[in-house]
Amino acid sequence: MIIHNTLGQQDEEFKPINSGRINIFVCGPTVYDDFHIGHARTYIFFDVIAKFLRNIGYSVFYLQNITDIDDKIINRAKDENKKYYEISDYYFNEYVNTMDKLKVNSINYYARATLYIREIRSQIKIMIDKGYAYETSDGVYFSVKKFKDYGRLSNQNLNEIIKNSRGTINENKKEPEDFVLWKKMKPGEPYWESPWGKGRPGWHIEDTAITETYFGSEYDIHGGGSDLIFPHHEAEIAQMRSISGKKYLARYWVHTGMININNEKMSKSLKNFIKVKDILRDYKPEHLRFAMINANYNTSIEFSDELLNNSRDNVDKINNFYNKMEKIENITGNYNVNENEIIKKFNETMENNFDTRSLIRDLFEFISSVNKNMDSVSMETAKKIIKVMNYINNFLCILYDKSNEYNNEKLIDTMIEIRNNMRNNKMYEISDYIRKKLEENNIYIEDNGNKTEWWIKD
Question: The dihedral of CA 181, 186, 192, 194: what is its sign?
Fold first, then answer.
């Protein structure tokens, strides 16, 4: 398996630290607001990855942190006259519910930062003892100059980073490029006790405290959006490696690309911030999943209504094809497929840097080939095709949930049976009325001889 490693900017053969077992950590959200399509892209992609790796036989532990103490959370709590944890608890639950709707359910554990204060304090103390960190009047800072590999992940020269940091003014820090590990309490802020006074952790330190707790000082894959490469992921590497003295924090770094709106990077400051819950008012979770994975994961996506509409059409085609396979009753047919070879080909595509875009292309080529030979597909072959579709859906998750109320097949079949009885008895007005009502509910039918096929179109 090949993975493009941000650390070194090259494709590398994937070799897990422990054979057969993979530890994955992906930076989770700061829980202070609704979640946007940038979150959706990253978390849908890594959900696909974790599920795919499990599909091909790996034991995967997928860990995600939750930043539940932060300036943004504190400020929102002040604005709403609430406790900080009321804000973080509410939006953490919103996040979990949103991920559930998007079928992002591969994460083994959500680790909330405030539950790891002891581990955070321990890491900070080690960095101070080793000379990598120092205390000031407002907190504890990491001395970037002490870690010579700082900038390697983002492919920057340490001297240039130091030079470009000179505009940052903070009289409490020794150097502008240094970053905070512990923030001393300001009046009215939540706090925890520490050897350096009452305060709370900085943003970067929670991740290394959490990953060391579960994975030790080194693990396999670290993921997140490309906007986190610098300074967040650089800081994580500096922290953990300064503590452990090892060559790596994570062996492989995988980053998703940004989302653009009207050729501009999505951001709150530009007011082009699109919430997941707004998308899901008009589109199904499967449509958004398809839109996010029908692209190379480390490239940017131009987000638009056209993108979502195209995704909806493509997902409909896939689901209609699946439904047709389920309805095939032919005992004989000379068209055959080797389901194991097809699955092997799909796996090979995914094992080339998780190439979901090419996988979807392969899937449609497969569907097209079957459609051209539909009259020659037997029930036995249809079962093989369904096996292939179910396999790929195990990680893409783009087949509609059969529990959807309008997707109740028995009810639809019953309505079509009534309609056909009316039609056979030349009661065309009633049969046409039933057909019209079905179409009003996005259920379309087609008469082929003595057989009526139906499909759903959103």
Answer: positive
Cα(218)–Cα(253) distance, integer angstroms:
12
Question: pLDDT of the chain along its 458 residues, tens only?
Answer: 999 999 999 999 999 999 999 999 999 999 999 999 999 999 999 999 999 999 999 999 999 999 999 999 999 999 999 999 999 999 999 999 999 999 999 999 999 999 999 999 999 999 999 999 999 999 999 999 999 999 999 999 999 898 887 655 576 889 999 999 999 999 999 999 999 999 999 999 999 999 999 999 999 999 999 999 999 999 999 999 999 999 999 999 999 999 999 878 787 666 678 999 999 999 999 999 999 999 999 999 999 999 999 999 999 999 999 999 999 988 889 999 999 999 999 999 999 999 999 999 999 999 999 999 999 999 999 999 999 999 999 999 999 987 654 456 777 888 888 998 888 888 888 888 898 888 888 788 888 777 788 877 65
Strand order in the sheet with 59-66: 109-112, 59-66, 21-26, 219-225, 250-256
Q: How far apart are CA 136 and CA 335, in angstroms?
A: 75
Instruction: Delimit the domains of the chain by residue range.
Output: 2-256, 279-396, 405-456
Longest dimension (CA), the chain: 91
From 134, 132, 141, select the one nearest 176 (Cα to Cα): 141
CB of 66 closer than 8 Å to CB of 116 = no
CA 292 remoteness from chain centre:
9
Nearest Cα residue to 299 out of 354, 353, 259? 259
DSSP 223-253: EEEGGGIIIIIHHHHHHHHHHH--S-SEEEE
CATH H superfamily, domain 2-256: HUPs (3.40.50.620)
